[in-house]
Amino acid sequence: MTSAARSIGRSGAGTIHHVAFRARSQEEQLAWRERLSAAGQQVTPVIDRQYFDAIYFRTPGGVLFEIATDPPGFAVDEDPAHLGEALKLPEKFGPHGAQIEQVLPQIRVPS
Question: What is the pTM assigned to this prediction?
Fold first, then answer.
């Protein structure tokens, strides 16, 4: 096998960063975490992503999988009647909100 055949893929156009699956609840996600661990997978602890909780594991080929919960959901920091009307960022990006907003393209919704 050549070294090129053994190399790991790189992120870029035409590649997939990860594949995500839905867990309806934290209990369902924890059941999957237990099942994956029992099968020998190295699974991350539950990670709080503000809008959902996530666990991650890789296949032997290096593909990253995520199992993310529905709750708490996007209404955690805004009124459900106004979802999507303003830019909302996870807390860690808050100090850079104005800077991030400046480089985002305008989205126009036809009326």
Answer: 0.74
The alpha carbon of residue 24 and the mean position of all alpha carbons in its chain are separated, in whole angstroms, by 15
Is the CA virtual torsion 20, 23, 25, 26 positive or negative?
Answer: negative
> Can you give the C-alpha Rg of the chain in angstroms?
18
Rounded (5°) CA angle 70-36-24: 15
Q: How far apart are the first and last CA of the chain?
A: 57
Tens-digit pLDDT profile for residues 26-66: 999 999 999 999 999 999 999 999 999 999 999 888 899 99
77 contacts 88 by C-beta, under 8 angstroms: yes
